[in-house]
Records
---
Amino acid sequence: MNIAVDTTSPIPPFEQLRAGIARLIAVGQLPAGTRLPPVRQLAGDLGLAPGTVQRAYAELQAAGLVRSRVRRGVIVADNLSRPADSRSTADDLATAAHQYVHHARGLGFDDAQIRHALDDHLN
């Protein structure tokens, strides 16, 4: 699972992780039935606290994207033929926009330059 968590970002790590996994599910890189890494393993791999990963998994489960089974772990849900609910889609878009702006500002661009770059990619 290729997800990066920026601990210097103002976006909480659990939200970055949740959005990243939701995105991988949405684009089919994590198909139905895929078992996600155990909480402690993923926490160790990403340098996060296990509670952070657990919270991300819990939010994914609440959104219906994954299911948790005793002794079987967290698995991508198989009833994903319906689109993600509008809240999670809006949350994902807001997270991506925030990360883009934060990164661009970190590179020294001002708001006008950031808007211009985004407008160029939308046209």
Note: The helical segments are 13-26, 39-46, 50-62, 86-106, 111-122.
---
Amino acid sequence: MILGKNCTRNCKFCNVTKAPVEKVNPEEPKNVANAVKELGLKYVVITSVTRDDLPDGGAGHFAKVIGCNMLTIGQYLPPSKEHLPVLEYVHPDTFDKYKKIALDLGFEFVASGPLVRSSYNANEATKLIVG
């Protein structure tokens, strides 16, 4: 997780802490790249807290951290009964449309569906792209 460990929102979507946010670490993109290289990882799932305190919400920093050629799109499911319920289930046809758009945008691999998660078939996708 990048951009710190604390979130600026007090929503009930996840279990991220809502304590005061940390300063953005300008070395984080380099640190993540070095960790990936040193560990010999084939793929990495990057996620982040919400940073409403930043002018761009942290998008610029996120972009500095991520050689993105794979995309996963899934349906929110609450992690517990204390979290917000699902208000709408996205139809599988809609996920198919999202996948086509993403492929047209140039992503090399797209997993798009109701039960897809951020690391969904990451190893298999990496084999398809890298060979």
Note: Residues 68-131 form one domain.
---
Amino acid sequence: MPTIVIASSKGGSGKSTSAILLATALAEHGATVTVIDADINRPLSSWAKHAKLPDTLTVLSDVKETTIIDTVEEAAADSQFVIVDLEGTASLIVGLAISRADLVIIPTQGSQLDAAETAKTVKLVKVQEKSLRLKIPHAILFTRTSSAIRPRTLRAIEAEFRKAGVRVLQTQIHERDAYKAIFSFGRTLSDLDSSQVTNLLAAGENAKEFMVEVVSLFKEEATKPAHGAEAA
């Protein structure tokens, strides 16, 4: 079943938030999901200890370089979706996880500094493609954006990546109090109290749009030549 790796060489890019939003949205729509917390700080594991998780969502944290591949493959055999949240470095465990990905999502904020770090992660994916002689679908996800304004800098960065042939997701994860609250209160979006968190409905719709676009990418990839085809 599909393995989605959330990767970025820069900390604070929104990896863990993106992983939680995607995992819970998929699980709440009936899919079985395993999240592998491969970040040395274990943010998802800490969150999962307090959150009321959907019955179809499992979070695993006991993973290291020597076990990451086996953990991913075992989870993929049991779940409809596997989501791997990685540390914000270009470490061996990151490369190993990417080698097992059916899709790599690269979260980034809309600044030139973040774009430079994002380019490093794209290069890491390309290195894995060349090493393994296969295509690894990957896409950039802009995070902490405004739902009302798309700044010129952000538009320019999007255009640069698209010109370079890198897919950029249409959905962006907007800056929302609700996304901070899921960590602060140890909750899923659906368990947050709308009297305590602003724009909760909009946050939920944003997460659903993200999930729908990711699922559509897998449907699109299914129409293409086999994932194991040799990279050009």
Note: The beta strands are 3-6, 33-38, 57-60, 81-86, 103-108, 138-145, 167-168, 173-174.
